[in-house]
Design a protein that fits this description.
Elements lengths: L7 H4 L6 E2 L12 E2 L7 E7 L5 H17 L9 E7 L3 E5 L7 H7 L11 H12 L8
Parallel strand pairs: 3-4
Antiparallel strand pairs: 1-2, 4-5
Helix pairs in contact: 2-3
Length: 138
């Protein structure tokens, strides 16, 4: 017997209504979102390599700010961490850094780095550093 698959909106812990425009974010799959109400620990790895370029990197930052604005951020709510990567990766802030959404949205502003695309290293850092036990609210 095959396992029962849950609907996408339940998997994302988000209800589905608002639209992220493919014109505003051509690199992203267009899907509907409203404010995410279930707490989640989310880490964004933002590509800052030469293959993305400065213009698309700024679109990634804009999308990340918009995404953060949909979350209920803080103790007892969602937490967001952000990492940028190219030749090297930099954890810009950890999951437990901010207690509210407005501070997170303002903090998502980082210089474009350039270099090779080292996605595997970024994901390794995410697993080993961002999702370490010390980075969660108690």
């Amino acid at each position: 017997m095959l396992p029962v698959l849950m609907p996408v909106q339940e998997f994302l812990f988000c209800s589905v209504h608002g639209l992220i425009s493919p014109q505003s974010f051509p690199f992203a799959v267009a899907f509907n979102l409203t404010e995410c109400r279930q707490p989640a620990d989310i880490a964004l790895a933002i590509d800052s390599s030469s293959s993305i370029g400065d213009a698309k990197y700024n679109q990634l930052l804009e999308f990340s700010r918009y995404f953060a604005s949909l979350l209920n951020i803080g103790p007892g709510g969602s937490q967001l961490a952000v990492e940028t990567y190219a030749d090297t990766n930099t954890v810009r802030f950890q999951l437990n850094k901010f207690n509210n959404k407005s501070d997170v949205v303002v903090a998502i502003s980082f210089p474009f780095m350039t270099g090779k695309t080292m996605t595997a290293q970024a994901l390794k850092t995410m697993r080993q550093v961002i999702f370490s036990r010390e980075c969660f609210f108690i």
